Amino acid sequence: MRYTVSAPGTPIHAAIQLPASKSISNRALILHALAHGKQTPCNLSDCDDTRVMVRALQGNPEHIDIMAAGTAMRFLTAYLSVTPGSRIITGTQRMQQRPIRILVDSLRLLGAKIDYAGQEGFPPLRITGTELQGDEISLAGNVSSQYISALLMMGAVLPNGLRLHLTGSIISRPYINLTLQLIHDFGGRAEWSSENSITVYPGGYRDVPFTVESDWSAASYWYQILALRGNEERRMKDEESPKGDEHETVELLGLFPRSYQGDSRGAEIFSRLGVHTEYTDRGVRLTLAGTPVSRLEEDMVDIPDLAQTFVVTCCLMDIPFRFTGLQSLKIKETDRIAALITELRKLGYLVRSEQDSVLLWDGERCPAENTPIISTYEDHRMAMAFAPACIVLPQIVIDEPQVVSKSYLAYWEDLKKAGFTISNEQG
Ligand SMILES: O=C(O)C1=C[C@@H](OP(=O)(O)O)[C@@H](O)[C@H](O)C1
Ligand SMILES: C=C(OP(=O)(O)O)C(=O)O
After folding, report:
1. ipTM of the complex model
2. How far is it, in rounded angstroms, from Cα 110 to Cα 275?
3. What's the superkingdom here (predicted)?
């Protein structure tokens, strides 16, 4: 299937109920399960990654397929290691290429019974739950924070708690802090004991009411839409065919100022691209304000999921950039560094990478394809970050658009609500 997406012809005034955060939903579900809780967390995400988690935790299945959900794979691996029973956990072909050895080695050192059911170092895994005795381990902090979050959540149910020492530079640190925050909300105790060590105290969790907030990573595509609209308005004014000065607004419901989510930093970065954020009593209101910077340099080691949004936005706004800290992008839903370079080339932008951890663009262009079709590589964020390109181009064609359901089931419906036109072609 393919979608052809075209931008609204009239100013955008939309109020969008964003999906709930899958990162928070999946942590809340694990903590709720470890608490043997009765009060199901409220406002859980309806996305694929959370659905597979709900299914895995219900009815004690022996064969668990978490499809493409990295958090579910990693969090459940630790959870199942301390849960009675023997199970196989697997996922999509891509999931079977996403490394898990660091987590498995750590759990084995604590006494877990885990075997590789396919290739060493990768899912599928056979896990037999047992009582873990270890209480202290070192593991690399520079591959995926999800291994660390998985161990932390499990740590509070171990008889002596858990001390983690993280080696190497720590990536995605806000996601570790998100885990610590949720552990605390569920009545556990865990804290940084130094710059690179974390202590989880024993004592387990409590059955508490919990409500999941909206997803800041999903919000980024709406910021992108507004930034690109602002760009087009400025261009039209330069060409002296003003569209009128009716101000465009997007209101995103369910976001809060002091969010648990590291991706809320996107609001500040987008302020440098001409999007103003105002907090209301039900979310945030985005408007256009200010002149965008002429170049953007940012370390994205804390916000890897926003990389695609900013890379595509900057190219389309003609803003040269250098984004560092992208070393985890190669092992996500697809190799996002390669995917971005390939797809932006179709639109006429020559983006380069350095050492697999930097993406940069100095304004180099190449001829764009006449009718580019954006491949999505089973990666929801490729579809969501490229769809707004229709604001700058006459239209954009997105291949396999249904991939968005990994984190944002209603993405296309929400675009339609905001006035975008989407037509469906068989591809
Ligand atoms: O813990 C989490 O909820 C996540 C952590 C990040 O992964 P890495 O720690 O592998 O970078 C992020 O990319 C992912 O979408 C969600
Ligand atoms: C990387 C992501 O997810 P995960 O690693 O949980 O599959 C993502 O949602 O961008």
Report:
1. 0.99
2. 48
3. Bacteria
